[in-house]
Amino acid sequence: xxxxxxxxxxxxxxxxxxxxxxxxxxxxxxxxxxxxxxxxxxxxxxxxxxxxxxxxxxxxxxxxxxxxxxxxxxxxxxxxxxxxxxxxxxxxxxxxxxxxxxxxxxxxxxxxxxxxxxxxxxxxxxxxxxxxxxxxxxxxxxxxxxxxxxxxxxxxxxxxxxxxxxxxxxxxxxxxxxxxxxxxxxxxxxxxxxxxxxxxxxxxxxxxxxxxxxxxxxxxxxxxxxxxxxxxxxxxxxxxxxxxxxxxxxxxxxxxxxxxxxxxxxxxxxxxxxxxxxxxxxxxxxx
Length: 287
Description:
Oligomer: single chain
Largest sheet: none
Shape: flat
Order of helices and strands: HHHHHHHHHHHHH
CATH topology of the largest domain: Arc Repressor Mutant, subunit A
Structural class: mainly alpha
CATH superfamily of the largest domain: Winged helix-like DNA-binding domain superfamily/Winged helix DNA-binding domain
CATH architecture of the largest domain: Orthogonal Bundle
């Protein structure tokens, strides 16, 4: 690793990356998420990125740091969500059992009846109820688990919202940068509800050729997204030095570039709303 760079200067010159990433994520998560906590995690990631950056890789520092910052913010969001998947499952199971017993008996079930229905101990029912109360404490004073099931679990967690938005951006870029014929086929079949026969007539090919193009496009889309989001899932090339593989790599690079453009456009389009309505003043036009 090269040490002939001013790593402190890298941090100072790229501090704006943290602000951009935090603002972008805050648009996709509930308002309860703390900007300060995200900014702190992002700033630490920027410092660590500067320490580990190797310019000999040829990757621009801004690109490298942006990925590290985004990953740190997702980790921070994950840490904010205390409940594990198992805890959420147990809360939903308790809510379902409570509803069934209430409907059958015409009254709310006791702790013992819930434990018997779930095949567990009363102490575990109390633990799940405690978990449910912790999750709804800020929105409901009661301890009924049905509130959790109906309100808290109805939407995405902050982490899920960010990851879903991120994948949608990569998918959009992957489709938009497909070779023209493949792009026409994908858009026509999946986005415009056009028939294979219609596409075949437009492109001057057979319907079986359209099916081949669709298969080729889906494979390219899958590998294009996995290259950036899940590299371990990318299908290895049979001929790494072949022309086809060079074209694939060029496509993968174009996805990254287009995704960066979309992210930048979203940041530029984000204008914080003022707490008070703005006063619009009319100015006389000059001749």
